[in-house]
Write a structure and sequence with these properties.
Length: 291
């Protein structure tokens, strides 16, 4: 019982570390000149400073952030055309929404953790977080299937790997990879054969340098499969070179629309990953220095 209690205490420390990190990030970004100041936000931050333990801080933020987000959104955006909205106010709304998204995983985690604790001791944190991540992955996959499936084989393959993955840290790495693949397709609006050839040369030179640094022990990687990396780079190069200008534009436009739609889902997956890292660190399951 003591061991289980100690584990929960460490988990709580991890959640507190996660929560205070995002509140501090929000406060720092809000203090910049790029954000519009608002007395409701000042009151929220002042209230949070008085909460010194996780339960009090979590309950306060969980209750207040939704009200704050709704108030700021209504105040800044209601009945206004995009060109009439002050950019500083937009920045403030974005910062509030980022904190709002960071809070979303906590109630879900607490509920799922308590349910899992009844079934297994200790709780399988990886399984728990994989199941939570799969909620957002299911949504972004549905949007993908509806809007851009079969436009780019590399994207199709990456999303399939995300759905098949059963390790939370691997899922986040693959989601990052998906983001890079989306970005390179968005950049097709600036495509030219000459630029693409130069880019390929640069990528191959970079791979050679990484191989040298890897062999010299200057960088540490779980694995480095040069042939596989070159094959993937060359395959995409051949793919885009063969596209007509019209197809390139179609891919770029549809990919941009998809990326914009799934940004909130990716933000939540990122927050889940960050929450997991904080909990794994607090429970000494991982060494922070290795991350």
């Amino acid at each position: 019982m003591t061991e289980q209690s100690n584990f929960w205490t460490d988990v709580e420390k991890g959640m507190m570390s996660y929560l205070t990190k995002y509140i501090n990030l929000f406060e720092t970004d809000y203090a910049k000149d790029t954000a519009e100041k608002n007395p409701k936000i000042e009151a929220f931050l002042a209230g949070a400073k008085f909460k010194t333990n996780f339960e009090d801080l979590f309950n306060f933020v969980k209750t207040e952030i939704k009200l704050l987000f709704d108030d700021i959104r209504a105040e800044y955006l209601q009945d206004k055309k995009p060109e009439e909205i002050d950019q500083k106010k937009v920045t403030t709304l974005i910062e509030v929404s980022k904190l709002f998204n960071a809070i979303i995983p906590l109630p879900r985690f607490l509920n799922d953790f308590m349910t899992s604790a009844k079934e297994a001791n200790p709780v399988d944190l990886n399984k728990l977080f994989v199941n939570m991540m799969k909620v957002e992955i299911g949504e972004l996959t549905k949007i993908y299937d509806d809007e851009i499936k079969d436009l780019d084989p590399a994207l199709d393959k990456c999303l399939k790997e995300i759905n098949n993955a059963n390790d939370a840290l691997e899922i986040w790495n693959l989601v990052n990879q998906l983001g890079l693949f989306l970005q390179r397709n968005i950049m097709l609006t600036d495509f030219s054969p000459e630029k693409e050839e130069e880019k390929l040369k640069g990528q191959l030179a970079n791979i050679d340098q990484i191989e040298k640094d890897y062999n010299d022990g200057k960088i540490k990687l779980p694995e480095f499969n040069k042939e596989k990396i070159i094959e993937e780079v060359q395959t995409y190069h051949n793919f885009v070179i063969a596209l007509s200008p019209e197809k390139q534009l179609e891919i770029a436009e549809k990919t941009t629309e998809y990326r914009n739609k799934v940004v909130p889902l990716v933000q939540i997956i990122q927050c889940l990953h960050d929450l997991l890292i904080n909990i794994l660190t607090a429970t000494n399951i991982i060494n922070t220095a290795k991350q």
